[in-house]
Specification:
With 635 residues, this protein is an alpha+beta fold. It has four domains: 30 residues; 131 residues, Glutaredoxin (3-Layer(aba) Sandwich), CATH 3.40.30.10; 228 residues, no CATH class; 98 residues, no CATH class. It has 15 helices and 26 strands. The strands form nine sheets. Strands 10-7-11-12-22-21-19 form a seven-stranded mixed β-sheet. A four-stranded mixed β-sheet has the order 2-1-5-6, with helices on both faces. Helix 6 packs parallel to helix 12 and helix 14 packs antiparallel against helix 15. It is extended and about 105 Å long. The protein starts with a helix and ends with a helix.
Length: 635
């Protein structure tokens, strides 16, 4: 008896100690955690830890989370808690530099006014006009602000990247300088006499200027200045060797670059040579010195065609206008966009035109990440056939698929090795460069570089992704594809910080119980069939009742005895059917709630009870073992 009392008392004390330790550790050991989730959702990436360790000034994050209003929407409510928990990880690892304020903006409160004033988007929660908020505002000591208007579960895989990018921007808020070298007329042109814009710049470039400072560089530039963070090259047709050398050395030093080449640039304004009017001008571009160094080859004689994603265009025929699939213009969607890279994982559609095919040389020791690819139904079309085709449908007649996912855009990372084994020859140097170039020539990068290579320049053309409408005298762009987003994302992701670039998509937090959902779906199908039959029966009864009651004379309802009996029968059937319908709906809801209750019990009570019973059994076995051992000793 005493032993049993001691055992039960020991179990009670152990349980009490277990709960006490949990409470104390929850309040005091905020940075000591064990992440047992499948995708380590609450463990920050090494790049995030590095950025947090470099914070120079205090930062404040205000999370607006309508926990009460969103309680009826489990997906949003759970995601709000997920964001809050992840932000607490940022706070715990910031050496006191980040302060987190969680604000619940109740309806008609000052907190709600604060959320609206901060730019947090209202979430409509029902027909009664109720709204909620789930967004955040981060600030530094100089009043720079970064806002996420709404934290959406749809963008969960990019959550850590978005939060870390905000921290990085606030810690280093100055605009990055983007160097631009191009042979295309993509920048705005003004009349020197009137100052009026005679040619607007590409809309994608305008969008890019909202986030970065663009510094145009001449195509014969002898060097890339140190203030340039990322270099963009668009259609580099005939760059002098000294410019290619400057780009090469920029990459060796760890510089980032986004390079657009094209076997057939439709924006290229080059006209035929009057002396040889029958010869087409060269409309392609390539940058062999850089491409060879990173093990990439551009097919400059062919363009990609893809019948499964070709854009339909209007074509005038002898019988009038008709729509035709134009093979070289491709609409990239779904699997054609890399869902794991932050440059493309939030994009829906990217349109390209007469894009080239990139081939990877496996001999070069670099890492290649495809970003944009054509489908398996794609193939190659001779670019001369595209130029001379008078009827777009003729390209389809001669087309054959080669069952390859032709590569259109690729990220290349790793140690870059120079294409130039020696410095420039003296005749290619300017007088002020002679000594410095020889002295600073580098053969291989000390730090990993990061490039994105794209085999199409028309991806940036307005007609491939944006249309314009007029409003109050203004020209309003309306995007129908994500081409500009691709440009901004690529530059944003390339520049500034290798730790930020190293972040990748995280796993999903909200993962459904697939078996439970399947059970629920089958139950709903079963009851929905019965519900639909009852609904149909009720509809017939109500139509018959309306037909009889519609037989009026001088506004009065005159029914025979038989009709009165029939009316009563229809009404009884109507009431009975409605009762059965309510019973079916209640039964369906009861089954769903019962299933939910069983899962709740299994998660909150059954497992702890199982552990408790296991302890009792283990203790009983231990006591039995002692008794057996004692008896054996007595014998």
């Amino acid at each position: 008896m005493n032993r049993k009392l001691v055992s039960v008392t020991g179990l009670i004390l152990a349980t009490t100690m277990f709960l006490g330790i949990n409470i104390i550790s929850n309040e005091t050991l905020t940075s000591a955690r064990l992440d047992l989730t499948e995708n380590r959702l609450y463990t920050l990436a090494p790049g995030t830890y590095n950025i947090l360790s470099d914070i120079d000034e205090p930062l404040s994050i205000r999370l607006y989370f309508s926990s009460k209003q969103l309680a009826g929407l489990p997906q949003l409510s759970n995601y709000g808690k997920r964001v809050k928990d992840l932000l607490n990880e940022y706070v715990a690892n910031s050496n006191g530099k980040i302060k987190l304020y969680v604000i619940d903006p109740a309806p008609f409160s000052e907190a709600e006014d604060e959320a609206v004033g901060a730019g947090i988007r209202q979430l409509s929660l029902g027909a009664n006009g109720e709204v909620g908020y789930l967004g955040l505002v981060a600030t530094n000591t100089t009043d720079d602000r970064e806002v996420i208007e709404v934290l959406s579960p749809d963008q969960e895989t990019a959550l850590e990247y978005d939060l870390t990018k905000i921290i990085y921007k606030l810690n280093d808020p100055k605009k990055r300088v983007i160097g631009l070298i191009t042979d295309l007329p993509i920048l705005s042109e003004t009349d020197p006499q009137t100052g009026q814009v005679v040619k607007p710049e590409l809309t994608a470039i305008t969008f890019l200027k909202e986030f970065h400072e663009i510094k145009p560089l001449p195509t014969d530039t002898p060097s890339i200045s140190d203030d340039i963070d990322t270099l963009i090259l668009i259609h580099p047709k005939d760059l002098p060797v000294k410019t290619q050398y400057a780009i090469d050395q920029f990459l060796v030093k760890g510089g980032k670059a986004l390079i657009f080449v094209d076997p057939l640039a439709e924006q290229d304004p080059t006209q035929p040579n009057p002396e040889t009017p029958g010869v087409m001008p060269e409309l392609g571009s390539k940058l062999d010195t850089i491409f060879e160094a990173v093990g990439i080859e551009l097919n400059s004689s062919h363009v990609i065609g893809d019948p499964s994603s070709a854009v339909r265009v209007n074509f005038n025929t002898a019988r009038g206008p008709r729509e035709v699939d134009y093979l070289p213009w491709i609409q990239l969607q779904g699997k054609s966009l890399n869902g794991q890279d932050f440059t493309t994982n939030q994009l829906n559609t990217v349109n390209v035109g007469t894009a080239g095919s990139l081939e990877i040389d496996a001999k070069v020791d670099l890492t290649y990440t495809p970003l944009l690819t054509a489908s398996l139904s794609s193939g190659l079309v001779e670019k001369n056939s595209v130029i001379t085709a008078s009827d777009p449908s003729s390209l389809i007649d001669d087309f054959s698929s080669d069952q390859k996912n032709h590569l259109i855009a690729v990220r290349v990372t790793g140690k870059y090795s120079s294409s130039f084994s020696t410095p420039l020859p003296d005749e290619l140097k300017t007088s002020e460069e002679n000594y410095d170039v020889d002295k600073n020539h580098l053969l291989a990068s000390e730090y990993p570089t990061n490039l994105i290579l794209v085999s199409d320049t028309d991806i940036l053309a307005d007609r491939f992704w944006v249309r314009f409408s007029g409003f109050a005298g203004m020209r309003i762009p309306e995007a129908f594809a994500n081409n500009a987003d691709f440009l901004v994302n690529a530059v944003d992701n390339l520049g500034g910080n290798d730790d930020l670039i190293s972040l990748r998509s995280r796993g999903q937090y909200t993962r459904p119980f697939e078996i439970v959902l399947e059970i629920q779906r089958k139950a709903e199908e079963q009851f929905r069939d019965k519900e639909q039959a009852l609904q149909e029966k009720l509809k017939v009864a109500e139509e018959n009742l309306s037909r009889i009651q519609g037989q009026q004379i001088d506004g009065e309802l005159i029914l025979s005895a038989e009709q009165k009996v029939e009316v009563e029968r229809f009404r009884s059937e109507q009431i009975k059917t409605r009762k059965e319908l309510r019973a079916v709906q209640h039964e369906l809801q009861d089954n769903i709630e019962r299933l939910g209750g069983m899962l709740t019990f299994a998660n909150t009570a059954f497992v702890p009870l199982l552990i408790f019973l296991s302890l009792i059994v283990a203790n009983g076995l231990k006591q039995s073992s002692k008794l057996i051992k004692r008896k054996n000793q007595n014998v």
